[in-house]
Design brief:
Elements lengths: L7 H26 L2 E2 L6 E5 L2 E4 L1 H6 L3 E8 L6 E8 L19 E11 L6 E14 L6 E13 L1
Length: 156
């Protein structure tokens, strides 16, 4: 059987097909495992006398998987299923009585399961699903504007 030479056209078509398969496969895999990184300076678009308004990035990431780096505020007890992530280390936990009191540099973290907490001044990275909007925890009465739920953390 005599082999026909590969023409330039066939080579270009083959290369395009391989590139398309690679792009499609890589895109699907990265989309399935992609986690957006969110910084404290990206949480709010405007802070005015009327309060805080969420940034376009936060609005776009509502219900998406995100990761944030920060510090664990001192928890109420050594083992629990939630804590407050802060931009800077804090000596006291910043619990709020209403969303009008909400600082612009904290996010409430609800873990996927209760666990023992890290030292408050050690940097950590948290990953989970972002919830946006005012919500009051029925167990604690703690009011939050932003939460990362079904979360887990590790030292950064």
């Amino acid at each position: 059987m005599k082999q026909r030479p590969i023409t330039r056209r066939k080579l270009v078509l083959l290369g395009s097909a391989v590139a398309l398969v690679k792009m499609t496969g890589a895109s699907s895999a990265s989309t399935a495992t992609a986690t957006a990184t969110l910084g404290f300076d990206e949480l709010y678009g405007k802070i005015s006398v009327l309060g805080l308004s969420f940034s376009d990035k936060v609005k776009g990431l509502a219900e998406a998987e995100v990761s944030m780096q920060g510090f664990m505020a001192p928890p109420l007890k050594a083992e629990a299923n939630f804590f407050v992530l802060t931009e800077i280390p804090m000596a006291l936990c910043p619990f709020c009585s209403s969303d009008a009191d909400w600082p612009d540099n904290i996010v409430v973290i609800y873990l996927d399961e209760a666990q023992t907490f890290e030292q408050a001044n050690a940097p950590i990275e948290v990953s989970g699903r972002l919830e946006v909007g005012s919500w009051t925890d029925p167990e604690t009465g703690f009011v939050s504007l932003l939460r990362i739920v079904d979360a887990h953390f590790r030292t950064a």
